[in-house]
From TrEMBL:
This is Calmodulin-binding protein. One of its GO terms (cellular component) is nucleus. The keyword Mitochondrion does not apply. GO terms for molecular function: DNA binding. Residues 86-232 form the Calmodulin binding protein-like N-terminal domain. It comes from Eucalyptus globulus. The keyword Nucleus applies. Residues 247-311 form the Calmodulin binding protein central domain. Belongs to the plant ACBP60 protein family. Residues 317-377 form the Calmodulin binding protein C-terminal domain. Its main location: nucleus.
Length: 433
């Protein structure tokens, strides 16, 4: 409301103007009247004008009283706002990771709720002009690391707002304002148009601040989310599979980006499929770790291995080493077909072998028939952490029910001595790590 700023002098000026106007009007319409008659008319008008003047004075006093009252009320409201320590707050965490072109959502797909609270009491401000203010949604630099309990300055917040880039689309599109109702609200549709890789911290935050023109006399602290990365969304063609199939390209595994450094290193080592990865993991996990090198950190390595082990392997495979150091050997299936060679602790699939190498592999498989206790079965339908390789000699201990054709053929060739079958070697247990 606008305050009244009239003074008594202003009122008198208005009255004088009205009297002069009345005199002029009377003179115009009473030109035939004598001077005494005109003076008589003026005397009759004067009491009316004095009464009007008194009425204006009363209105003037009343207006000044209300103006003073409102001014004090505004001052008290501003003072109370400062005392209440008002803050905007996110009530819902973001669903991560975030991708370009995808709508921002709260955890579990819920709307992103916000509220205006009194930080001292934690209560939502449900009434008063502040409870229905309008807020601007902005993007902040990821390294705005102030704690939620800190009372940062408005200028400090503004310094971390990501500015528009020349020649680029707005970084964040959609409903960039939200109006509170009863102190609460929900963010509308918001979409990032670019990833965060170009940013100094490689991360962003979402921020909320009071829109221009609202609560100019009160300080309401802004809100911010946790820092997050925005990744490029490339659709179904780049998605990871859960669980991965044995024939999937190796980049379908977590932490292996398509056409990334780790992907190229694995391909150079002949590891193209998920099954190739698993078999190399089984044969020599240290060698596989060496292949990937520093392109993958220990935490990412653990995640990669866990994901790979969820792969469903339906066929039974057999492994045979030709040396005691387990550097060279062959893998074959239940039909006796060569699957791949172990060359200096590196698994190489048959499609990467030369004709001469394949012939050498077939020779190793035949040699396995003469060394049955050293032939190990990759037991179990999944490459789980409890996966074990068992010696085929377990057949004679009744540990393998319904042996495969290869198992029976291999077992039938074991030479039984007069004292009974050759004592089997201990079961060879091995985990994939």
């Amino acid at each position: 409301q606008e305050r009244c700023c009239l003074t008594e002098e202003d009122v008198r000026r208005v009255i004088k103007e009205e009297l002069d106007h009345a005199k002029s009007y009377s003179a115009k319409h009473c030109q035939s009247c004598t001077g005494n008659a005109l003076e008589e008319i003026t005397k009759q008008l004067r009491p009316m004008m004095e009464f009007f003047l008194q009425e204006l004075k009363e209105e003037f006093k009343l207006a000044n009283f209300h103006s003073l009252h409102l001014g004090r009320a505004d001052a008290r409201s501003t003072e109370n706002n400062h005392m209440r320590n008002l803050q905007i707050q996110f009530q819902t965490k973001l669903s991560l990771p975030l991708y370009t072109g995808k709508k921002l959502e709260g955890e579990n797909g819920t709307p992103i709720s916000i509220a205006l609270i009194d930080a001292t009491t934690g209560d939502v401000i449900t009434s008063g002009p502040e409870s229905s203010i309008k807020l601007d949604v902005v993007v902040l630099e990821g390294d705005f690391n102030k704690e939620d309990g800190d009372n940062w300055a408005q200028e400090e917040f503004e310094n971390y707002v990501v500015k528009e880039r020349d020649g680029k689309r707005p970084l964040l599109t959609g409903n960039l304002q939200v109006t509170l109702k009863g102190g609460v609200g929900e963010l509308g549709e918001l979409i990032f148009t670019d990833n965060s890789s170009w940013n100094k911290s490689r991360r962003f935050r979402i921020g909320l601040k009071v829109a221009t023109g609202y609560c100019g006399n009160a300080r309401i602290r802004e809100a911010k989310t946790e820092a997050f990365r925005v990744k490029e969304y490339r659709g179904e063609a780049y998605k990871k599979h859960h669980p991965p199939a044995s024939g999937d390209e190796v980049w379908r595994l977590e932490k292996i980006a398509k056409d990334g450094k780790s992907h190229h290193k694995l391909e150079e080592a002949g590891i193209h499929k998920v099954e190739d990865f698993l078999l190399q993991l089984l044969v020599d996990p240290k060698k596989l770790r060496e292949i990937l090198g520093k392109s993958i950190i220990p935490k990412s390595w653990d995640c990669l291995v866990r994901h790979a082990k969820t792969c469903q392997i339906s066929r039974i495979l057999y492994l045979y080493y030709v040396d005691s150091m387990r550097k060279h050997g062959a893998l074959f299936d239940a039909d006796g077909k060569l699957i791949g060679l172990i060359k200096d602790r590196v698994y190489v699939a048959t499609h990467q072998l030369s004709a001469q190498e394949k012939e050498h592999g077939d020779t190793i498989v035949k040699k396995a028939l003469d060394n049955l206790n050293d032939v190990m079965e990759l037991n179990g339908e999944t490459f789980s952490p409890s996966m074990q390789m068992k010696s085929l000699s377990c057949i004679f201990e009744g540990q393998i029910e319904n042996p495969t054709l290869v198992q029976r053929n291999l077992a039938s060739q074991i030479c039984v001595a007069p004292g009974g079958p050759e004592a089997p070697r201990a079961i060879v247990s091995s985990t994939a790590e």
